[in-house]
Amino acid sequence: MTDPIFLLPGEMAYQREPTAISTLLGSCVAVCLHDRRRGWGGMNHYMVPDASSGSQLAPGKIGVSAIAQVLRLAEMAGSSRGDLDARVFGGGAVIGLASAQATGIGDIGARNAELALRLLRETGIPVAQQDLGGTQGRRISMDSASGAVQVTVIPPSAERAEQQARAQRLSGRKVGVLVIDDSATVRRILRQVIDASGDLEVIAEAEHPFQARERILEREPDVLCLDLIMPQLDGLSFLRRIMQFKPIPTVVVSTIAKAGTAMHANVMAAGAVAAVDKDELDLYRSPDVANRVLLPALRTAARAAVGRR
Q: What distance in Å separates the CA atoms of residue 36 and residue 218, rounded to the nearest whole number?
């Protein structure tokens, strides 16, 4: 047997020699192909079903092209499609492993799994085994010669368990957001954008951190949307206090926390889930950018597990 191969997302292999091929899967899917007549086999590992879900990703990370590529590898090796069968794994709703899950593009794991089964059906390759869906990750290991695949469930870490618990608590209701900004106009615009999302809602507003403290006690928000330049107490100091005494997932929205700046590093070190450049949102002109940038950040924060700092 040749040296074992471990696949990262976007990678694939097809082996004529007996080889152990393995990978780790959350929402990603692996399609394993086995040539029954020749004892050859291989696997891919993709992250999203199509380019609309990740247009900047390499082809091997996109299901439509990744499945076509691994089939091409099999044919280049000398296998005929009529001699191939498939085994399909992954596609879980795994909070923490499925980074795309909360970005507004739907249940990415389920879509990955659906794509694999559909394309294999369309190409006439039978599915001999499948282990799809669920809420836990998987480690799979394929013997390329026999086609046998061993599946090991990955138990959730304490952080992932908390993320799953948060997701469960949010199931069936909107995510409650507290908007903290000293500008009434900005608060109004943010409320309009957030309330129009369908799955998020502003449950309270505050114009400075001391008012925000009262709103937190009154309303128990799921997520904070926090400015930095405010009267009485700056947002970074408030964030540090919140993360020390009552951690709440927080998205910083500020003109002074641009990516690459020291302030961006400071708010992330203080415990923010994300920092969004308020200038980039272009709030006074159109909600389009806020829909694309801010809403996914708030959704990700809603499912994040944050601890005391």
A: 64
